[in-house]
Design brief:
Belongs to the WD repeat WDR3/UTP12 family. InterPro entries: SSU_processome_Utp12, TBC1_cilium_biogenesis, WD40/YVTN_repeat-like_dom_sf, WD40_repeat_dom_sf, WD40_rpt. The two termini are 24 Å apart. It contains 13 helices and 35 strands. The strands form nine sheets. The protein has a four-stranded antiparallel beta sheet. Strand 22 and strand 23 form a beta hairpin. The protein is an alpha+beta fold.
């Protein structure tokens, strides 16, 4: 047995200021010269690993210090030994001056063997890396062999919790560090809850729980990040230089986009979350709707700031109280009507100038979460938690159409400017494109990994921007590639059908898991596969072929019977049968073989599994006929015979009509398989003969060819072992 020690304890090393944090990661550099100790917080300690000579000198200094301490203690105990202590101290000083080594102040191990190397002799604390602005999640050293700049002892990369990667250079002279490079993705750290496009489509604002970000929607670059409250709605001010943000706390925050700063906070603007903002067509102000059951009108105002600089503010003008929480407000482009969606699942329409009630729209079963009014101010589009979108006429308040739009709540809807096309975004992670003149779905755009919260459309409708729970912002561009509505509809139906097939198979598997062990074993022995639309289509084609073949056989039998009766009665024979338009010149069995051969091999098993027993028995009856004559499909016949017998073994054993079919199949199947086996054997023998002749022509004996092959096989076997 093994008597050697794999790991030897060498003691511990006292950590620095980050010692109160637990250690999350330990990692050595590639050359073994550095050790990094990552704490659970913002600290990373770096230790240099001394080489053997340095560690030996450190051990030597530690021994001298121990002797010096012992001499000092002896001096303190008795005054008669002062001379000896002075001589020992003098000897130590001389040795220190001769060595010329730096005196490290590493801690010593209390007790234990002092004449052996300790961890404190091997490791030297160099640097504590902190103040990264966020917690350190992981780190790594530069690969060994990396060329470092002068004065740099080592280089390491840090992964921070704020989605940032920093590369640091550790100085070899001043025991300090500096940032060599930084990769900081400008994305949000939480859900993108609201977004807005500027009037010229050159800027995009997105809001999350703690930040408002400005983007270039064309290039995707983050232009600015501003601290904010929990944003739920955004609106650009006229001129696109300022913006206002409605927050979950009920305040309105004004931002100077040029300076990338928050210039004003209207505290107490609402008593609840500000869910929606909509601008006035004359650009004088905007309406806000909140959870405090009020709709307020605000006007823009300009004030002079420090140094004479002008800044934007908002001033309250009017308040309208409603019966329930306001979830969305929209003003018609002509400025005449204001639509207000309430928590009671209704939409109230007011005259915007006098705020007099005009219409009440009922129909949604759950609250309306989003709305938009078309550019011609004639149609109102609403999206609700009941997964439906509805199109309303604003002249009489009638519902033109209700459409089941998403698999979950509809969170945002928007008309394409100047058209009656619209987009809807839902919690089912899909963005959908609609033609609301014909009330049909045009496109379904998957891509997000989480619920969609908001969407915005450019002024020309050439791109759409969406924000999601997955913290991403996606831009969807209109392409010149044409699409066909029928093809898109068929593709969606196929995906739904396949999903339904998968769910059905999963339910069957769950039911089989609750049955007895025998049933579970039978289910395990079943053919594995996934039921697809192609397999279902193939099963339908086989069933149709069997029906057509049965009708043709019945037609042929009827003609033969009529011909026999005419011969017995002495009548002239009837006219020959016209050829079958479907089968052509093929016999019924040949037609079935043609249809079955056209099924892809990957779909054949699933297609046969979906056949009813009656059709499976009819198909089994054609198999002996396929084995007659030259050019028979032996492999296909054997595969189908084995599959059908395995699937319907119990029913075949209990069906008397199946016995002659199985006996005929057994007689012909054995001979056909043996003939195929003979052909394969003949071909193998011929290939072996040709290979032997080729070796003889090249002057290579059979032994010379066999020995390397055996060696290769032996080598493969040893490698596998």
């Amino acid at each position: 047995d093994r008597d050697h020690v794999v790991l030897e304890p060498m003691g511990s090393v006292r950590r620095g200021a980050a010692s109160h944090e637990r250690v999350a990661m330990l990692r050595f550099s590639g050359d073994g010269e550095w050790l990094g100790v990552q704490g659970a917080g913002k600290g990373l300690e770096l230790f240099r690993v001394r080489d053997e000579d340095e560690a030996a000198r450190k051990l030597k200094r530690r021994r001298r210090r121990r002797k010096e301490k012992a001499a000092k203690k002896a001096t303190e105990k008795g005054g008669g030994k002062k001379a000896a202590a002075g001589a020992a101290a003098k000897e130590v000083a001389e040795k220190d001056s001769n060595d010329g080594d730096d005196e490290g102040q590493d801690g010593e191990e209390p007790g234990g063997e002092d004449d052996t190397l300790k961890a404190s002799d091997e490791l030297e604390a160099i640097q504590l890396v902190t103040s990264m602005g966020a917690k350190i999640k992981a780190f790594c050293f530069a690969p060994s062999g990396t060329k470092l700049p002068p004065g740099v002892a080592c280089r390491l990369a840090l992964s921070l919790s704020n989605n940032c990667i920093k590369v640091l250079n550790i100085s070899s002279e001043t025991n300090s560090y500096d940032t060599a490079s930084c990769i900081d993705l400008g994305g949000h750290r939480s859900d993108v809850r609201a977004l807005a496009l500027s009037s010229d489509d050159m800027s995009l604002l997105t809001a999350s729980s703690a930040a408002l970000k400005m983007w270039n929607p064309r290039t995707g670059s983050c232009l600015a990040t501003m601290e904010s409250g929990y944003g739920l709605s955004i609106l650009f001010a006229p001129g696109n230089k300022f913006a206002v943000l409605g927050t979950k706390e009920g305040s309105l925050e004004v931002f100077d986009l040029g300076a990338a700063s928050r210039v004003h906070v209207e505290e107490g603007a609402h008593g609840g979350a500000v869910w929606s903002l909509t601008p006035l067509p004359n650009k004088a102000g905007f309406f806000s709707g909140a959870a405090d059951k009020t709709v307020k009108l605000w006007h823009w105002s300009v004030v002079a700031g420090e140094g004479g600089a002008k800044s934007l503010r908002v001033s309250h003008v009017k308040t309208v109280s409603v019966a329930d929480d306001v979830l969305s407000v929209r003003l018609s482009p002509d400025g005449k009507l204001l639509a207000v969606a309430l928590l009671d699942a209704t939409v109230k329409v007011y005259f915007s100038d006098s705020m007099k009630f005009f219409l009440s729209l009922y129909g949604h079963k759950l609250p309306v979460l989003c709305m938009d009014i078309s550019s011609d101010s004639t149609l109102l589009l609403t999206g609700s938690s009941d997964k439906n979108i509805k199109v309303w006429g604003l002249d009489f308040g009638d519902c033109h159409k209700s459409l089941f739009a998403h698999g979950d709540a509809v969170m945002s809807v928007a008309w394409v400017p100047g058209t009656h096309y619209a987009f809807s975004a839902g919690k089912d992670r899909l963005l959908k494109y609609w033609d609301l003149d014909r009330f049909e779905l045009l496109l379904e755009l998957p891509g997000h990994l989480g619920e969609l919260w908001c969407c915005g459309i450019s002024q020309f409708g050439d791109f759409v921007v969406t924000g999601s729970h997955d913290r991403s912002i996606r831009r969807w561009e209109r392409s010149s590639e044409p699409f066909f509505i029928e093809e898109e509809r068929e593709r969606r139906l196929e995906s739904l059908f396949e999903a339904d097939m998968e769910n059905t198979a999963a339910d069957k598997d769950a039911a089989a898991g609750a049955t007895s062990d025998a049933a579970a074993a039978a289910a395990a022995a079943a053919v594995a596969g996934r039921r697809t639309l192609e397999a279902v289509s193939a099963a339908d084609a086989i069933i149709d072929a069997l029906e057509a073949a049965a009708l043709e056989l019945e037609r042929l039998r009827t003609a033969d019977r009529e011909r026999a009766e005419a011969a017995e009665a002495g009548r002239p024979p009837p006219r020959p049968l016209p050829p079958n338009a479907l089968l052509g010149t093929l016999a019924p069995s040949a037609y079935v073989l043609k249809i079955v051969s056209a099924v892809r091999a990957s779909e054949l098993e699933q297609a046969v599994m979906m056949l009813p027993f009656a059709d499976a028995l009819r198909l089994l009856g054609y198999l002996p006929q396929w084995l007659q004559g030259p050019g028979t499909a032996v492999e296909l016949t054997v595969r189908l015979a084995a599959l059908l017998v395995r699937l319907h073994q119990g029913q075949l054993a209990a069906t008397a009509a199946a016995r002659p079919v199985l006996l005929a199949l057994q007689r012909r199947l054995r001979g056909a398989v043996q003939g195929l086996k003979d052909v394969v054997g003949f071909n193998l023998a011929a290939m072996s003969y040709l290979a032997r002749r080729a070796r003889e022509n090249e002057g290579v004996t059979e032994a010379d060819a066999v020995v390397p092959a055996k060696r290769q096989l032996l080598g493969n076997g040893l490698a596998a072992a």
